[in-house]
Amino acid sequence: MAIVLEAKERADKKRSTLHRIRSQGGIPAILYGKKVENKMIFVSTAELEKALREGGRTSLLTLKVGGEEHSVLLRELQRDPLRGHPLHADFQAVDMSTEVDIDVEVRLVGEAPGVKDGGVLQQNLHELSIRVLPANIPPVIEVDISGLQVGDTVTVGDVKTDGKFEINHEPSEVIATILPPQQEEEINSGEQQEAGQPDAAEGRETTPEE
Question: Which GO terms describe its biological process (predicted)?
Fold first, then answer.
């Protein structure tokens, strides 16, 4: 059952309006889709965060706005790079009979014998792009590593889909591997830490000219 989220329309995207919405505990957002008219809306920050905790980032939501209900996916959630609080959300209305492309988290499960023998687990892919009907979107894709020895790998081709979705990756792409201890040491010794700078404040509707 889809999680229900209440939304309200907003008249404009002026900076003062966006500031007022955020100061009152809301998140400015956009609703769009092939069969719906684009709408500028806002939702409760607390309710959206609750929905994400309960269903995950890829969960199907029922968005109520202006007396209408839409089945939607949260396509983008922009957060303040320093404080982490939400700045803006994009909701895509979907047709339940039409497949969508979406990125889903990969979760490794099980204990690899190779790790117990001193090997080091390296995960190459943390998300998989899949094509799936909205009702069949999995919260995570679990990949069993309980049979991996040192030097073994698990690839995209090893993922069980149960016929519910297609994976938009080459079957040969490596998801995870068990590295020999000495190889891990070589990798670590060759890594260089680069100083990073936080991105500019996120939110397409936060610029002064708006």
Answer: translation
Torsion of CA 49, 52, 57, 61, to 10 degrees: -110
Q: Cα–Cα distance between 37 and 41 in angstroms, integer?
A: 12
Domains within the chain, CATH numbers bracketed: 3-93 (2.40.240.10), 100-189 (2.170.120.20)
Q: Does 208 score more than 60 pLDDT?
A: no
Q: How confident is the model at residue 92 (pLDDT cuts 50, 70, 90)?
A: very high
Radius of gyration of the chain (CA): 21
Cα separation, 116 vs 21, in Å, equals: 52
Report which DSSP code applies to 116.
H
H helices of the chain, in order, are: 15-23, 45-55, 113-116, 181-190
User: 107-127 pLDDT, tens per residue?
Assistant: 999 999 999 999 999 999 999
C-alpha closest to that of 163 among 138, 128, 126, 127: 138
